[in-house]
Amino acid sequence: MCGSLHQRIQDYLSRRRICRTRLVTKDGRCNIEYGNIKYTKHLSYMADFWTTLVEIRWRFVLFFFIASFTLSWFIFGLIWYWIARDNGDLSWQSPPDNHGPCVDNVVGLTTAFLYSLETQTTIGYGGRALTPTCPGAVAVLIIQSLVGAIINCFMCGVILSKISLPKKRAKTITFSEMAVISPRNGALCLSIRVANLRKSLMIGSQVYGKLLRTTITAEGETIIMDQINIDFIVDAGKDNLFFVCPLTLYHTIDKSSPFFEMAVDTLHNQEFELVVFLDGTAESTSSACQVRTSFIPQEIMWGYNFLPIISRSKDSKYRVDFSNFSKVVPVATAHCAYCFHNIKGHHHFSKHGQDNPGFEVIDITDPPSVTKM
Prior knowledge:
Elements: H1 2-21, H2 39-47, H3 49-55, H4 58-87, H5 109-120, H6 135-163, H7 166-170, E1 173-175, E2 179-184, E3 187-196, E4 202-216, E5 222-231, E6 239-241, E7 247-252, E8 273-282, E9 288-295, E10 300-302, E11 304-306, E12 310-312, E13 318-321, E14 328-330, H8 337-342, E15 370-372
Parallel strand pairs: 2-10
Antiparallel strand pairs: 1-3, 2-3, 3-7, 4-5, 4-6, 4-8, 8-9, 11-14, 12-13, 13-15
Helix pairs in contact: 2-3, 3-6, 4-5, 4-6
């Protein structure tokens, strides 16, 4: 019992350590901190205040939304109170019966605030109204109406922009939890599966990768996060993907690939991070978005292949079974890329795999876990 609990704690700490060390999380967030930034650099965020407001958290957007309206109502309420006081309209000033007020029924700070709120929101209950007695009050009314319109447009624009951020569209594009290495079409390939959970397409989709690792140059310089390009292709090529159903991305492990020197028994001892990018334009909103994920050596399985997830029924409908999206099955694979290209028949057989029910028949029913395309 104690041994099992100790093992669970060790596994949890190991996962925490991996999450802290990776640059890009599985959901695409960049795990990086900026330090020792000069104070003057922070002012650049205020210069680009629109982007700052769009990117901050929702709690701060709601705070600025409430504060901007409330503060403007209160400031103009003080102005209306000053106008009424200057004209002798307040109740404690005991105006005569034939006195002409600037604003009817504004006799104190509370009523001045209420008149400011009713003016800026165009409520107009009818109890308080501006009179032609004070020309300056007419100018204040015009200014407040314009300021209120500007605040309305600005805050509505911020909220609309934040709701329609391309990051939200990226949430409906998912990558497989693991990458696999197995033979395909006479080549040793690293494969990753990606799916679009919406029926609307991603126009002009492009996929590419970056391998991040620490390298030492010939001059002895240590480069942290050295970036190496990783090319991915699908059956139809690597540009302008027809992203209507889940796709499997392939990277050919040849002599030019950084994975060529790795083997099944040395892969998990390596220190690198494979970051995969998918760029495209949402068909419904025409907004460009980028989806990111990453794979560390412990998330790459040598000698496995993905299970099939696309089938076609007798009524000519295509179905995608997402229950098999990240499931894999062991396949005969060479021990290393060098063995694959130079030693014929040298294979490594994996004995550990997940249950693979597969698609044994072409006619399938409509279970709740199946998504119709």
